[in-house]
Amino acid sequence: MGSGKSTIGKKTAQLLNMPFIDLDQYIELQEHRSIAEIFETEGESAFRIKENYYLTALLNHSLPCLIALGGGTICFNNTLELVKSHGVLVYIELPPAALVSRLSTNKDSRPLLRKVSQEQLFNHVSQLLNSRKTYYEQAHLKINGINLRPEHLIDEIKSFL
To answer: Buried b vs exposed e over 17-50: b needs ≥16 C-beta within 10 Å?
Structure first.
């Protein structure tokens, strides 16, 4: 959340000449409502089931593409293994302070941050990162997100392949 995966993903997909899909936007299109509404009416568990369902469908029925996942996607329902078996999983790593700087202006649009005060934001983001670190560290590639350029990401992916 806030790592720039949608922004850098779009640019990288263009350079690779492949489709880009933001999983959250895709879910919103399929469900005809926002992620925030799904969280609010059905809860996080129901959202994670939907998220896994739509991601599985994309991975099984889509041409090669670049998919930006939500920050918690790989932490639930064996999604980590699913993603790793279908492509290259990239973790864009940023320190909590950088994430807080990016998230503080639009935190109300993010379900996991809506009820977090500005004063609590740094601690909350740090705790989220710590709880997800085990999953993130299993990515095929770990990339420093500070000043990340699409060309750099492409070079890293190519070196992995």
So the answer is: eeebbbbbebbbeeeeeebeebbeeeeeeebbeb
Instruction: Write down the residue that tokens 């469908």 correspond to.
Output: 57
Q: What residue type is 13 in one-letter code?
A: A
Residue 68: which H helix or E strand, with range?
Answer: strand 66-68
- Specify the amino acid at residue 28: E
The tens digit of pLDDT for each residue in 76-102 reads 989 999 999 999 999 999 888 888 787
Domains for the chain: give ranges and CATH numbers: 5-160 (3.40.50.300)
Instruction: Please provide residue 92's backbone torsions phi and psi, each rounded to the nearest 5 degrees.
Output: -90, 105
Calpha distance 143→128 (Å, rounded):
19
Q: What is the pTM of this model?
A: 0.86
pLDDT attached to residue 111: 64
